[in-house]
Amino acid sequence: MMMSLSRSKACTTTIRQPTTAARTPTARALTVRTYAAAKPERALAATLEKVVSTRTKLEKSLKLADPVPEEGVERAVEIMRSGSMFRFDNEEGVEDEVSKAEVDVAKYTDFKYAVAMNSCGSCIFTALWAIGVQPGDKVLSNAFTFTAVPSAIVHAGAEPVYVDCEDNYVLDLVDLEAKMVSSGAKWLVVSHMRGKISDMDAITELCKKHGVRFIEDCAHSLGVLWNGVHSGHHGEIACISSQSYKMLNSGEGGFALTDNDEHAARLIMITGAYERLYRKHTLRPADEVFEAIKAECIPPNYSIRMTQLTAAVIRPQIKTLEKRVAIYDRRYKKVEEFLNTKVRNVHVPAQLEQVRCVCDTIQFNLMDMSAEQVDAFLKEAGAHGVQLSIFGAKENARNFRNWTYGPIPEDCEKTEKIIQAAVDCRLPMQFEDEDFDIMCEVIKESMEAVMGVEA
Questions:
Q1: Which residues of 425-444 are buried (b: 16+ CB within 10 A; e: fewer)?
Q2: Residues linked to residue 341 through DSSP beta bridges, in sequence order
């Protein structure tokens, strides 16, 4: 017979348990909580009965960001000691750290040009300006993305038009074409949210059919390939991020990537290469391209350049990208298999076969659960060290209901339903394999605590 338990009288001790097949491959510190029975008026008579529940707990934080390699730390210190942190501080003919980072990023992603900025949001905003978006224009984009994407559209003076997603988080192409027609929009920002790549060949064909030009938000897709080609090459400009929880970590930062000479020149000038400072960019078009643009109209200077300090911590991380991609992929497959086969009410959707993923996070959908059960599951997991989030949560910046700086869509019910049960979970590089075993066990036990054990 189940008794009502009072958590106010809980006491906690820590013990060591040997490894079992049902738990983790190593002996870890597990938490044992003992609860006294509830007050007599809320339970059975005045009987005191102790119920012991042993649960796995993750002791490491899922919020761990990748550390800066020592090479980057040392170079950053050198730059700080010199005082030359501005990218244009170097003497004529002396390549600055930002230009070096641009060369490294362009080489890795196979683009002709890379323009470094203070954030990926700045890259998206300036990319829209560079390709010709005008105030009042309508710009199509994902209803499921991070708030920085529609914010950049609004920053450009344009109006977002939101497109539904599928349950594997990519664009719904039927809805995309329908809204190309109904909205009359001639611009598109394709956001590869959490590195999930939509069918880019099909999107390119739809854009050609309806006269739509587009850029790609690749904040989460550095290292992701489409049919062996780095993400971002379908659109006119691609934008990547070096914010803390990305494959490159500089706290904040971003790069706009393009093969187009005029786009590159506009990006360089609007970022902050005033007068003829564009000549200090290693990767740049010929002087004539810049001067022709300036003769027509000198672009505004938004002073959103990347600093030498930021570039210094980024550069050594580029060297290890492929090594880290391989590690993430191996770990992801193990976690994916566990969640899909061992945890009830959970489904990790497959990505398109054309994609080589970069799996520094994992997302999964909760199936056949009420809102109350979803909330209880999150609380159970959080109480045992696994901090998960729901994309559609009330305060989540990925919930389009929170994008009140622009028009809130009322025709994205499909996306809204999906994100209300879509879970986001980081897979930190600093974890050991056994930490992921523990994380998976916590998720499994938390689900069973809420939904029961499947027969």
A1: bbbbbebeeebbbbbbbbbb
A2: none
303 CA to centre of own chain: 25
Helices (H), 319-355: 321-342
Closest CA to 195 of 363, 429, 339: 363
Residue segments in the chain with a per-residue pLDDT below the cut of 70: 1-53, 455
State the CB neighbour count (10 A cutoff) for residue 328.
Answer: 21
This prediction has a pTM of 0.87
Structural Rg of the chain based on CA atoms: 25
Asked if 144 and 198 count as a contact pair (C-beta separation under 8 A), the reply is: no
End-to-end, the C-alpha distance of the chain in Å comes to: 20
Report whether 270 contacts 302 (CB < 8 A): yes
Tell me which residue of 129, 394, 160 sits closest to 265, measured CA to CA. 129
Q: What is the pLDDT of residue 8?
A: 34
Residue-level length of the chain: 455
Structure confidence at residue 46 (pLDDT): 36
Q: Which residues contact 56 (CB under 8 A, 6 or more apart)?
A: 23, 24, 28, 30, 384, 438, 441, 442, 445
pLDDT at 53: 56
What pLDDT does 454 receive? Answer: 79
**Domains recognised in the chain with CATH numbers:** 1-55 (no CATH), 70-318 (3.40.640.10)
